[in-house]
Structure formats: C-alpha cells, structure tokens
Write a structure and sequence with these properties.
This protein is an alpha+beta fold. The protein has two helices and ten strands; from the N terminus they run E-E-E-E-E-E-E-E-E-E-H-H. Strands 2-1-3 form a three-stranded antiparallel beta sheet, with no helix packed on it. Helix 1 runs antiparallel to helix 2.
Amino acid sequence: MKIYHYDPATGEYLSSSEAEANPMEPGKHLVPAYATVQQPPAVAALQVAVFEGGTWVLKEDHRSEQYYSKTDGRLFPVTFLGAVPDTATKFPRPSSLHKWDAAADAWAFDTELALSAIRVKRDGLLTESDWTQLSDSPLTDTIKLAWKTYRQELREFPAICDPANPVWPTEPA
C-alpha cells in the first residue's frame, strides 16, 4: 500500500513510499506520523499540495520567484505558501528615483524625488566651490568670473534641467 509523506510544519507533500506491514495485525499496514494513504492531487506550476485538516488542498507556491517591495523596492523574500501580498510586485524598482504608482500598478519616475536629489547634489557643488568667490582666493579675475558663472548655472539648474536625465553644468578648468 502506498503512503504519502508531508512536512510536519507546512503540510507540504514531500514524497511517497510503500507502507510497511503491521506485524501486530496481519493484512494491515503502518502509516507513520505525517503520512496519509490519501493521494495528493496533481499540481500545476507555482502550486504545492498541502495536507491540511485531514485532506489535501492546493496552495500557491511562489518561493522560487523573486518579488520586490512596493514600499522601498527591496527584494521581498517569499518564504511561505499562499498568495503573495499586494505589497509586493514581480517588477524590480528601476532606480531609487521611482516609487510605486498604485493607479498604474507600476513603478513611476518621481520628479519631486529626482529634483530633491538634484538640489542636494547642487548644494554640495556650491559648497565645494565657495572658496572660489572669496576675496583672498588665489584665482585670477577671469577664472573667478568663470566660477561665478558656473555657480549661477548651478543655482538655476533644478528649474531648467530634465530631472530624468540631468546634464550638469561643466565646472571651470
């Protein structure tokens, strides 16, 4: 007689084997713990048979797939049986400048986030070049003027750039 073994924690079908004869009751067989004589149903892709409540049920199995958090784009490890929560997606986040758009059910470029990152970089470039405008700077007036022009371009940059593809002003040589 064939028996079907399942995982004690998840109930997931593991394997089958032949039952051993019961030495105390001739003609009967032993069915060990976490086994049943009920044959599990056939499973489709991304499914697993689970012995639950005395019968086999089919459950979704996405453990072999990669999902990503819609909140922050990080890898979302699927370590459980069943449906994947709505807070996860199969699509990786294209960049840190994208956020999940629930209406479109897709990642969307976040212009405000991009402009914020551009402003942070711009502010850093301005701070790094402050010394060029000091009265005791070792630069010539011509080079100092080039730096002044560059710094003005930096100040205007967030308002005129393409946030998805910023082409930064060139620093004077």
